[in-house]
Amino acid sequence: MRSITTIVLLLCFTFLMGQEEERKVSLEIQNKSITELLSEIEQETDFQFYYAEQWLDTTALDKSYKNESVETILTDLFQNTQINFFITWDDRVILTRNNSIYGNLPEGFFTKPEQVETEEILQENVSAGPILLGKQNDGPDKVLETIRIGRERKTNRRDQLTLSGYVTNTSTGEPIANLAIVVRKLNIGAVTDNTGFYEIKLPSGLNVLETSSMGVESSRRNVIIYDNGKLDFNLEENFEQLDEVVVAADATRNVEDTSTGNTRIGSEASKNIPLVLGERDVLKIATTLPGVSTAGEGSAGFNVRGGKTDQNLILLDNAVIYNPTHFFGFFQAFNPFAINDLNIYKGSIPAEFGGRLSSVFDISSKDASNTKFKGEVSVGPVTSNAVVEIPLAQEKAGLMVGARGAYSDWILRSLDEENLNNSQASFYDFITKYNHKINDNNELRATAYYTRDIFSITSDSLFDYSNRLLSLQWNRKLSEKSSGTLMLNNSQYKFNIDFDGSTNRNFEQGFQIDETELKLQLKYLLKESHTIDYGISGKLYSVLPGEIAPKGSNDIIQPLAVPEERALESALFVSDNYKVNEKLQLDLGLRYSFYAALGPSTQRIYREGAPRTDANVAGSETFDNNEIFETYGGPEARISARYLLNDSLSIKASFNNTYQFIHTLSNNTTVSPVDTWKLSDRNIEPQQANQFSLGIYKNIKEYELSLEGFYKRQNNIIDFKTGAQLFLNENIETEVLQGKGKAYGVELLIRKNRGKLNGWLGYTYSRSFFQLDSEFPQERVNDGEFFPSNFDKPHDLSLVLNYKLTRRFSFSGNFVYQTGRPVTFPVGNYEFNGNEFVLYSERNQFRIPDFYRLDIGFNIEGNHKIKKFAHSFWTISVYNVLGRNNPYSVFFVSQDGEIEALQSSIFTIPIPSITYNFRF
């Protein structure tokens, strides 16, 4: 019996070996399609193929096979396609698209497992065999579309796969941002960024993708995915009138992301906020958020979490803006119609940013439409704005051009102040941006920006300052998992003073700073739980600290030019957004900053054990052009973590370590257009700060709540000696002091994003202190003890509300309250050598009165008809409706032997305004 069984097995084995030999073929294919190749195989063998011709590529092939099995040939032909094949026992070859045919049942198919997780069953069933779809409707008479990505392999059927692509408007070709792409049954989703790009993780097999966003037609489609792939969406606009549209794409972002103290402000958010003279301003909105304040009404610059105004990195399309304001700080220096959004980083600062201690204001401009000519115009009592978008290559390239100007001289002339009758104050700015989608993997953006202010408050002085910016950005997709951005940026800021008086002491003086940066930033998706960002940057500074020259041949002013300062600041950075598990997520970043001060330069050497004064100079050292004479730098840690307590509640913590190598020189309380910048050298060290943050974030229905605390320590903070001479001083280190700083506080934000009534309440309790201590009495302030900084305001509260009466009419209002800032008061007088002098208190010992202001507005939108030339928008607002006489500063004068305190204010009466906007 055994011998018979053995013989039968041997015969079967011999038969099968013979069949295998029959499968071997040799083919020489020249300029033939796959269909023709399959026909030749049928002629040479007994194999018969079954398939749909439209599945196969018609591209001509050149192939050579020598004594290869049919399985090997088919594997080679279809390896980079969506085609799978299955060979039956009787030599029939069945081709399938995407799906695989299984020749046997999986192991344990008839055995019910005792314990199997529901999620595992679902995922296994998704890809356990061919997917059969019945007729599925997506509305009346509309069959649900099915899209296939890749092909099924038995080795990848349970992989988590990456699907990415771009979402664009079918009519305009513009990217659609903040669109939600979700798979509801699996509770996963993604949101498109400003370029319309999305990336979502999907299990292999069948997924039903749904898209939704305000003003965009929702869609559903079947996506069968077996490999990482790309899927672009072209969606139609949707103007169907609804009772209420709720977009919850970012509803949990504040809870789920790892960042602390960070906020995004869209340009549309400024439309309904009443502001002075009706000008839309995203930077003013930023000051209503916790942790961001200004020194006073109409002041330029920002104080973020107890930091100085020069500690904020303000970027427009990745290039630095040194003075982001117009008209003494009343208006932002950016055309509001050209701005897309503003991201503020004041807690978790990404490793890609450096060079400032307190915050980053990252402003991005809009991309121009590449399909349709469009624009937006605004006319107000002081300013007018216009932006047009011009398609240059259909669905490829577009150009945005924006212009803005002020005609504000009439305000100064209408004030009841004779000294201002001959005053003038005006500004203008231009912006242009070119964006070009070269192909699916390459994109180019270029931005040019220029702004200029001219003002004269007195009849003999004309002030003129300007910003210039150039930005070039090349985005390239390197692979399915990696992408890169190469940036080249140049920024310039300068001011000039033209003095023309009644004497022969007329002069012209000015200041200028230039910087050029080259930056390469790369992103790599290591795996689902690791997203790596890394790169390198280098920045060259050139500072002309100041010069003065006589205006005419009869003027007696001696010409003077402070020598140029140059330096190189570079950095390496890397960060890993690491998802440890569903609860814990980390963002681990490291930046190494290196700074080199470059010649030509002459550096003073001061005697050790003595204060830095002209009398204590021991010598000097001279350095040649581009010679490095001083270096600074070190590692900067950027660490943050988020832990989810549940789907709507999380705890976050972060630590930042930062360096700053450039400083402002100003002994004013607030930012001035004539402030100068100073680079670190041998005698002035870079500033450094460490910041800790801890916060709790909660969502309750349509409300977002956050409570966050911070503590910051600073070193080498610059302050100035009393009566310091800063401008046109070649040896500025003799006039400045460097010391320590500390700041701490708690920030509360309650935000309601949806419903007829929406807005936010922001409250900050914070303190900011400096310490200027030294072994030398002349370099010590307040006996070396900590004292409040000029911008220390313990209480800061802002309430911003919008109430929508109908789809066209709405009310808005905001209320602001701040503790008065510190000042130094005279407290007595004394005599010395027969002369009488004023005795002042310790620095910043007193405070000016508290500040509060209420603004209201009424907004009227035009009708929402689809077919019309333009959509209009009226804003009627009243700034300082209570007529509060808020003090801007307090100063003292001597009259008849007595010291008298005087108060200066900006707006002491309600300021009404009306602005008309239209968009076409």
TrEMBL record:
One of its GO terms (cellular component) is cell outer membrane. SUPFAM superfamilies: Carboxypeptidase regulatory domain-like (SSF49464), Porins (SSF56935). Residues 279-356 form the TonB-dependent receptor plug domain. Its main location: membrane. Belongs to the TonB-dependent receptor family. GO terms for molecular function: siderophore uptake transmembrane transporter activity. Gene3D superfamilies: Carboxypeptidase-like, regulatory domain, TonB-dependent receptor, beta-barrel domain, TonB-dependent receptor, plug domain. GO terms for biological process: siderophore transmembrane transport. This is TonB-dependent receptor. It holds the Pfam family Plug.
